[in-house]
Amino acid sequence: MSGSSQAWGWHSVYPAPAKLNLFLHVVGRRADGYHLLQTVFRFLGRADWLRFSPRSDGQVLLQTPLAGVPADEDLSVRAARLLQAETRCRAGVEISREKRLPLGGGLGGGSSDAATVLLALNHLWQLHLPRRHLQEIGLALGADVPVFVFGNNAFAEGVGETLRAVTLPARWYVVLEPPVQVPTAAIFAAPDLPRNSPPIDPRDWRPGIGGNDLEAVACARFPVIAEHLTCLSALSAFSPARMSGSGACVFAEFAGREQADAALRQLPDGLRGWVAAGLDRHPLCELAD
């Protein structure tokens, strides 16, 4: 997936790629209850796709709502309206979306959609806000939104807003989608969640270092995640399978596509999974420049 050299316009389809958390540690908690994290985000070559049509009446309309999610609560709609309010923009937009990333999967689908809305409308409405400003707007929508605006694979700290670009080796991933939606807030509120992992100096981090502090909590509450981890780990000699974010999706890393495809073919019937390449950067990374 690429697109940094494309002449993006109203008739383009804009990608909102998935992310993986290559590790995720909870290193503390702020006085306001927000958890302090360390993680590495990696973008994947699998995405939702968004299309935008201009409106002259200032309305923001979502043509493809998600079942059970009121349009006014959808992160894509909220992102567009927040951008309007921030810039006093009077233009409107209709948004249609092809949803390929699962809800409650730990792949950042809603956050990625919101970031793509910010990036695309900043461009289409000719607002010319710098990337840093868009990241600040994105943080008001959710802790994972800023990294998608940032545009690079990143070592993240704080609640996810302090970002340092990282260079990652070329890798392919098998991702499994357990048939559950995991409520992120419930995982972070769990009394058995570790909240004191020793911080890692970002300069010392290398691929393979760290685990996911949320994994055991999610597996205890949703045993099907543990079952998928066990199944995928048995097929991956290159690296152990891990959960992304607060779940439910789990992944394993492979050196090349052939190995990833071979592992996917060995999955038992009934398990939903797919293969995607790890990206060097977000496909819209130059759109806000």
Automatic annotation (TrEMBL):
A GO molecular-function descriptor: 4-(cytidine 5'-diphospho)-2-C-methyl-D-erythritol kinase activity
Function: Catalyzes the phosphorylation of the position 2 hydroxy group of 4-diphosphocytidyl-2C-methyl-D-erythritol.
Organism: Candidatus Accumulibacter affinis
Keywords (A to Z) from UniProt: ATP-binding, Isoprene biosynthesis, Kinase, Nucleotide-binding, Transferase
Taxonomic lineage of the native organism: Bacteria, Pseudomonadati, Pseudomonadota, Betaproteobacteria, Candidatus Accumulibacter
Pathways per UniProt: Isoprenoid biosynthesis; isopentenyl diphosphate biosynthesis via DXP pathway; isopentenyl diphosphate from 1-deoxy-D-xylulose 5-phosphate: step 3/6
Residues in GHMP kinase C-terminal domain copies: 230-269
Entry keyword Nucleotide-binding: yes
One GO term (biological process): terpenoid biosynthetic process
Record-stated family: Belongs to the GHMP kinase family. IspE subfamily.
Name the UniProt record assigns to this protein: 4-diphosphocytidyl-2-C-methyl-D-erythritol kinase
Annotated GHMP kinase N-terminal domain residues: 76-151
Residues that hold ATP according to the record: 102-112
Catalytic activity: 4-CDP-2-C-methyl-D-erythritol + ATP = 4-CDP-2-C-methyl-D-erythritol 2-phosphate + ADP + H(+)
Gene symbol of the encoding locus: ispE
EC number of the protein: 2.7.1.148
Superkingdom of this protein's organism: Bacteria
Active-site residues per Swiss-Prot or TrEMBL entry: 19, 144
Family matches, as HAMAP family: IspE
